[in-house]
Task: structure prediction
Amino acid sequence: MFDSTQKAQYMDGHRERFIRLDESSPRSSVPSEVGGRSTLRSSMPGFGYGPFNALRSFLSGGSGRLKSLRQSLTSGAPKTAFAEDLKSYKRTIFDPQDKLLFRMNWVFFSSCLFAVAVDPLFFFLPIINDSNCIGIDKKLAVTSTIIRTVIDFVYLIRVCLQFRTAYVAPSSRVFGTGELVIDPMLIAKRYIKSYFAMDFVALLPLPQIVVWRYLHIPDGPDVLTTKTALVWVVLIQYIPRLLRIFPVITDLKRTAGVFIETAWAGAAYYLLWFMLAGHNVGTLWYFLTIEREDDCWHLYCDDPNFGLGCNSSYLYCNNHHHGSYDSWLTNNSAQVFNMCNGGQDNPFNFGIYEQALVSKILSPGNFISKLCYCFWWGLQNLSTLGQGLLTSTYPGEVLFSIAICVLGLILFALLIGNMQSYLQSVAIRLEEMRVKKRDAEQWMHHRSLPLDIRHRVRKYERYRWLETRGVDEETLVQTLPKDLRRDIKRHLCLGLVKRVPLFENMDERLLDAICERLRPALYTENEFILREGDPVDEMHFILHGCLESVTTDGGRSGFFNKVQLKEGSFCGDELLTWALDPKSAANFPVSSRTVQALTEVEAFALCAEELKFVASQFRRLHSRQVQHTFRFYSQQWRTWAACFIQAAWRRYYKRKMAEQRRKEEEAASRPSSSHPSLGATIYASRFAANAMRGVHRLRSKAVPTIVRLPKPPEPDFGVDDAD
Amino acid sequence: MAGFINRHILPPFRRPPLPFFRPGGAGSALPAGRRPWTPRRILDPGDDAVLRWYRLFLVTCLVGLFVDPLYFYLLHTDGLAACVSMDMGIGVLVTAVRTFADLFYLAHMILKFRIAFVAPSSRIFGRGELVRDPDQIAIRYLKNDFIIDLAAMLPIPQMIIWFVIPAVSTSSANHSTNNTLSMIVLIQYIPRVYLIISLNSKIVKASGVVTRTAWAGAAYNLLLYTLASHVLGALWYLLSVERQYSCWKEVCTSENGTTAEMPTRCLLSFLDCKSRDNPIRQTWHNHSAIQKQCMLPDAEYDYGLFGDALNLDRNGVGFIDKYLYCLWWGFRNLSSYGQNLQNSTYKGETVFCILICIMGLVFFSHLIGNMQTYLQSMTVRLEEWRVKRRDIEEWMRHRQLPPELQERVRRFFQYKWLATRGVDEESILQSLPLDLRREIQRHLCLALVRRVPFFSQMDEQLLDAICERLVSSLSTKDAYIVREGDPVSDMLFIIRGELESSTTDGGRTNFFSSITLRPGDFCGEELLTWALMPNPSLNFPQSTRTVRTVTEVEAFALRAEDLKYVANQFKRLHSKRLQHAFRYYSHQWRSWGACFVQGAWRRHKKRKLAKELMKQEGICYDDQGGAAADGHGTDTDGDSTPLLGSATEPGAAAPAADAGASAAAHLGATFLASKFAKNTKRSAAQHHKRIDDDVSTIKFPKLAKPDEPDFSLHTDDAL
Result:
């Protein structure tokens, strides 16, 4: 019993220790703040003097902040929120930047345009019947009423949505996109104060009521009252229904930044407005023709000479006529109607409405042909600013003509101006290139540049256009944030930079830093990138093309070295030596080679300041592996190695020749000692003379060909040698 | 007054004005006292009141230009009676309106004597000095604009109507008088138009634009177009009356009363409608051929394009109808450059048609061009944004960016449009003067910067210096602000959005710390350490954390150079209070603090565990002592038993029984003691092994203490 008790106690202690270790893991031990939804979100420090500083900042901030604080404290629910917090807070309040709301705004915009096209159809309701009376087209009345009701219902949805859409608080727009007001009371108050009255008047179903009364109440108003009420209702309500399009357009612009995506769509949009105005003017012309015909009938009906037995009510259909209507219609109506046919012999001056009378469009017939004829009339007179209109002196007619002229002027100016804007934006880069080319030609002519330089400039400009299409790439990339900029540079440069062997073994972070600072460079044929003796301010890494690199070791006679640089090579390697030197001077190093482009070259350039920054910032550039790679691919080192090998070979050759001469001397001295005769002596002296002459020739020849190329200065890779 | 520096509101942190300005101010006040007869106010031409007057006067000039051509409608012809009459009712009304408008011209002239001007010699730099001497102002005005203003102001039509026409009403010069009136109105139109043009240029020079909004500008140009149509229509009507009178005059001249058919001679006074009751005129009219030759529509005379206008009077229409018809005629022919005109070979008529065509071209192109300019200025930002987006799309397609990267770029530009509406804020701020720029930066930044707790410890001047150098930074979702090991180039203060900040302490295994940065936090605090070092290196510090955006983030960025400048320039940044605030809010220090606390806690637990183990071992040793004691006790009992056995002889059986019992107890005790000893030894071995396991599993992450910013300078600022 005692043993088991002790064992159980040990196990409990062990388990408790493990639980505590889990609790103290670093992930969950860091406190995370719970952020509030108030605009005054500030977490106070835990020091004793914190409240005093907070109070001072509140007092110095003014009463506006105190008022905002009081409002925030008074109501329990928050009044404003950022856009990303909206979806987590309330489902019923919409974000004005919501994609669904954006699409619905497009639907609302289309329905508003359709509404201002459908409303003028009510002007076609009065017709002149076969029995020469003014009536109302019942079929068209029903159709127009149904269409208008459907369109108004669509817009009613937008009105309901406006009560549920948040808006940006103006006081929070001092920075960024601002905060959203999500209090339904404030949203409703703002909407009612701004556009609600206009929307309410636009949505009133007044034409529907007038038409319904005419169609369904047997003892309702007659044709004249219905016609008059209808035209005034539609005309007065047309203004708010036209004006409500602009808040919808404003919402679309605010959300998307552009209202029309392409330039041609913009031109078509304004052409659509022009056609819409033509349609409206045409329908109004039709209605005013009916009015003018009515005036003519009334004039002759009241005249005792023509209107014997005529009553005004006889001119309208569907009325309960008196007993004498039939006799008047049979005997005397021809006198009234014949005077108002619109012919040449009529004394009544119809002015611009005569065309409608003569063409018989007032009779009940094909509605489509009537619609097309009026549309054509409106479009013609709008586009010619009404210059073909021969008016009478009737003031209503003259005012209508003046309105057509002014409206045509406005729409014409809008159409031409906007088409020009869109066409300019389409060809803006081409025009810029053309202007730049003309500037270059003009400047070259002004400075009297020689022809070959002009030819080179033209070739370079053409090459640059092919590469970039006129887009200023550097400025365009600089507007992006740092993270996007780095990713784009990585996409553009990394695959190409890895093809340079010097960069193969670097790690990702170092390559990112280099990619951010690489600048594309383009060179045309026969251009000199570097010249021997010039300061090197850029290091170039060749991506495409072929270059020739030559050196004369400072112009020394008898020395020439030439190599070809291809893809993966680099030039300007003196700059790396200069950048890696901790105690380097401020001057740039002097180039030891002349580099010329043999074909069109694409390269990445790394300027001196950027290279120095990378070298000092990233210590991993100082490594043995990079040193070896640099030595292998550096043309300067290769040249030195080639000279070193040549010098070694020449020393070896010289040593071999000396040994051979010594053997010859030994062979010559041996036969002379064996024959002491006179002939042998003569032969020995002759051979000695020949041998001495050969030695002299070799000595004089070897002296000028021995070269002493100094070892190039080595980059200081000594720091962090352990890598 | 020009040299006196007047400061109404003195900001608290600005330096007070220097004392040597006060004697200068006193010196300036002295000449004003010496001349009490000078006017009380000399107005500045750039003043708001002067600009408002200019705009009001421009409206009045336009009204005057509209009213003047109405004089052309005073005449109307009676085709049946072949005479011309004048409508004095309209004349009275037009004269009253014109007199009211002329009063504004007079007021404008008087005001011109009170408006200062800029001396031309002082315009080489800045706006120039104002000449406020009334004598020089009067001399300059009389020399330059006075003649034209006087010509525009003179009420000549009023004098002709009220004094000249009644004086010559009975003579035959009535028509000549009316011609003189029309000619004078036309001649006076020229200085009035010139006055409007110069007024336009004055307003543009003073405030930059005539109208504030683009729509008002377009409506203004349309109004000018309407005015031109109105003048043209009125002129058309006037010329048609002239043509009618020419026809009548020609017939009247030919009928000199020498034939039998014409018993009476025609006088020119017969063409005036006032002589309609004359018996001699009635006789002449009955025998005259004037109707056959000059009366429309069967006239032998060719009226050309004026026939329509003469029909107006023949039909007896009223003034309103006549005016509207003429206005419409002007509109139609001005907008179509006179394409529908069918003129005769009369020279005046041909010149009039040429004038219509030229005016139509000028006004139409002017209207179209100006409306286009205004409409383009309304949408210039929108068009720039569209062009930039198209450039971006073309460039991304040209460079074959992957679709994911393209989507990120599009999302960023959408976000940037929402935040800035396409306006380049930096260039707008740079074009403002330094003081205004500082005030705007304070308005934009200060209220938001105070929400960052680290800045709430700073005073106003330091906050101003920081606000000037803060730039706004916008980042979209899932963007890496900085990665571990990268150089930190700016310090970011979060205003909106959330970021995730994590660290692996240089890539060490088994170490990961992740926190969420919210509005009020900051990241890149290694930069502050680097900026506050007395002799910092040129290299930027390396980041110890990887910061990634979880949502869209709006922040203020403080660049490395700006932070170093602030740290060097304002020594108050080196204070103990800021040091404490920095330590509290810095996540690097929080991470170190968390690791330190963890390490301390683990050491505490280890020490506690060791103490418990030692205590347990003490308890085991006492038990062993007890066992040994028991064994010892047993030996003592064994010794006492033989003593009792040897003492008594008759109790031999009893000692034998005791000896057996004692032997049994001894064996059991020995067995139990050995068993317990074995158990104790095994338990001790297990205990030791467990301690070794605990020691081996505990690994203290040796997180290095972060480099502390050098706040030690000027410690007298401490709390």
Q: What stands out?
A: The longest helix of chain B spans residues 587-647. The first strand of chain B starts at residue 75 and ends at 78. Chain B has four domains: 39-209, 212-399, 423-584, 591-615. Residues 39-209 of chain B form one domain.
